[in-house]
Prior knowledge:
Largest sheet: 7 strands, antiparallel
Amino acid sequence: MRELDELSGWDAGAPPLDDATRQRARTRLLTAMRDPAAPAVRRRRPALRIALTGAVTAAVAATVLVAVRDDGGTGHTATPPNDSSPALRNVSARTVLYGAAAYQRKHEEPVAPRDDQFIYTKEIVKETNLKSGTTKTYVDENWRSVDDSRRSWVMEVGKGWWADPPKANESIWPTQDWTRLEKLPTEPDKLLKAMRNPFDKTPNYSKPVTEDEWQMVGFSLAGLLYRVPVMPEGLRAAAYEALSRVPGVKVTPGLTDAKGRAGIGISLSGPGTIGSTFIFDPESYEFLGFRDSRTSGDGTDMKSYTQLTYLDGWAVTDRARQRP
Length: 324
């Protein structure tokens, strides 16, 4: 991985980095992370594995959490509906995300899986080729190890592979380890502060989030919501409310989800975002799915796609690839 190549120049036994060096490190790593997948296919949901030790952990783990992309997110601009549409109402990101949190708390199904089990999710992906206008539908089924100690089966746009668990010296965000997820605070203000560095086992909840930390807080929260569709009770609602407080969160009215329903979008603006839009029902604020983009090939063979994804179902199973 290119981001690991960028780390090869650091000596893990070196003294802590000063502010200027830390900023240069952050810039290099974010630049390397902008194309995390192989050249042939840019995956929808990149996860970043970082092997970090010693001073390098202290210096960069808190600033490199979610693999970012440079595709701008939506692929093309949606055409707004007429002025009478409820999706065009002038609402704030805070209103939408607090509404989504309230809906989540009301309809949440508590789950308590065992460490030796798997979280099964079935996602429907509708992908449109921006040049030809043709649309294909994929069914992605995933079985993720509850304690992240066993191989998981992962699918993206209809293709699947076995994902090995993290090695002893690797840290992954967002984590799939249910025990780690359960330890995250479900109080929005505390969750915000914990997201400055999700690898930190003893977050400082008394210290306010600084201006330099907000970008990473946004990466962490959005990545958590983006890649972990099933969470311990209360965590998703708290993440919605925490995300509403991140500078740069914006509302995009007039979207349509994969089922053709009117929606209102929430995304992070600014450089280095995860490039996805969360779509919510404009009335109930129920979460409807994601709007995303993908590219494949390179040079003259480069193809661009817009994706609409929704969670069709989930369950807890005893084995990978065991259907519920």
